Amino acid sequence: MMKLDGIAAFVATVDEGSISAASRRLGLAKSVVSERLAEMERVLGVTLLQRSTRRLALTGAGQAFIERARRILREVEEATAELDASSGKLAGPLRISAPVGFGVLHLGPAVARFLQENPGIEMSLELDDSFVDAATGGFDAVLRHGAVGDGRLIARRLAASRRLLVASPAYLAAHGAPTSLSDLERHRGVLYANRTGDWRFAVGSGWSVIRPGAALRVNNGLVMRDAALAGLGLALLPSFFVHEEIRQGDLVAIDIGWPAEGAELFLTYPRDHGASSKIRALGDSLRRSFGDPPYWELA
Predict the structure, then answer these.
(1) Would you identify the CATH topology of the domain 1-88?
(2) Which string of DSSP letters, residue by residue, matches 84-98?
(3) What is the pLDDT of residues 32-62, one digit of tens each?
(4) What is the pTM of this model?
(5) Beta-strand pair 234-238/188-192
(6) Nearest 5°: CA angle at 45, between 39 and 49?
(7) Based on CB atoms within 10 Å of each CB, which residue in 42, 72, 157, 289 is the most buried?
(8) Please, what CATH class does the domain formed by 163-253 belong to?
């Protein structure tokens, strides 16, 4: 009979890319993970992983089985969580991914509050500015800001954020403040590298797209903020990155007559995950911590 601990070892090995990393994730000896993998392959009568000194690779059978294995684990975790919820407690692992900048600035106190409310939950929070696929990345849920647009996912809205066009007082003194969309063409921008370099502004019932010259392209909002503070150029950033700097006068919010495209925050998770009680509790706790409207908009 196929055992659940073998499925867990298989999924962890695939997600982490090695047996050593899987053993660290599971808190087991490497030899135990290897034994569980070997036992599961014996029970199934197929080879799931091609092992070499350099890498692990899924076989055809492994490719066919991995999504079902993930689904089995999610169903077991969900069933356990529902039982815990019915008894008034939430417990067990919860693996979350979030963007680096937002995580550094805003998730520490919010996550601490959630875990204080639910001491039985064992959370793993990974901060990553690259695109994390909530459906296949091995996470229970992924926090994103911006449009989701993926039919495989359920997206729970956490909070809203405006995007603000900002610059340092020194930059504006040297180059002048833009007052219209056409003025932006002559300015240099600090641009986010993981999306198109366009700036989108709501004009009437449509959108106007500006393509500024790049003083810097970078895939991290905190570095973008620091570049704007240093006077390298204009930056279009969510208010949760710059609300304190604007309040203190270190950055100036520039009004060109039209609002920039906003950015909502979502907690996303695979549709086949079900309405996880742990994810639902996390979303509710984060919304309470951020407020409505969120505290970065009030500032």
Answers:
(1) Arc Repressor Mutant, subunit A (1.10.10)
(2) HHHTT---EEEEEEE
(3) 888 888 888 888 888 888 877 667 888 888 8
(4) 0.69
(5) parallel
(6) 70
(7) 289
(8) alpha beta
